[in-house]
Amino acid sequence: LRVVLGGRMLRYTAATSVACFTFNFLQQGQNYAEPLVLVSNARTVPLPAGWQILFEQSFSLVASMLILPVDRLIPARQRALATMFFIAAILLPTFAAIVLCSWLPFHGALFQAAAMGIRATIKLVNGFSLQIATDMYPTLVASAGNAVCQAVGRLGCMVAPILCELVAAAFGGAVAFFVLIGAVCAFAGLVVA
């Protein structure tokens, strides 16, 4: 652990830990808050499960194809990860605005497109953050470095539902939580960049 948490690797470990935390916070927060938004907004009708799976798998395929051409160099992956965090920081408040504007024409389609865009972005963030967490350390300490980053990341899974409930209680609904997740993603994009 001296190599992972000491010297010049500390900065990389901290940035990757922030990325892993934010990825887990983003994924768990979206998984927890989206059903709350669906229940609270009577006009939003989700797609039938079969179509939702088809669209989500299509977005996943596109997302995985976007990961492939990224160079194996760590700086290229860091830029790609920072870009994904900034895209998530834009998509999440947009999703909240779409939910609040239920009077819009094609509201259901806009809602589903924004939700699927968030899910695809989560898959891209996952791919890049895991690649960076494993590839940036020397071979002898790669598993220890990855374990530290993933452990910090798991804290994001634990914090997300608690913060979602607190934000929902303070602001009258889970929609505001998507704005908070967007702010966390913007911060992570700045740290990783």
Q: Can you describe what's shown?
A:
By secondary structure, this protein is mostly helical. The chain contains 7 helices and no strands. Helix 3 runs parallel beside helix 5. The longest helix has 32 residues. It is globular, with a radius of gyration of 17 Å. The mean pLDDT is 80.
User: How would you characterize the largest beta sheet?
Assistant: none
Secondary-structure element order, N to C: HHHHHHH
Spatial extent as radius of gyration: 17 Å
Oligomeric state of the chains present here: single chain
Mean pLDDT: 80
First and last CA, distance: 24 Å
Q: So what's the overall shape?
A: globular
The unreliable regions are none
Total count of helical runs of at least 4 residues = 7
Number of strands: 0
Helical residues, percent: over 70%
Q: What is the SS-derived class?
A: mainly alpha
Q: How large a portion of the residues is in β-strands, by DSSP E? A: under 5%
Structure characteristics:
193 residues; globular
Secondary structure topology:
Blueprint: H1 2-5, H2 9-40, H3 49-67, H4 74-100, H5 107-135, H6 142-171, H7 175-192
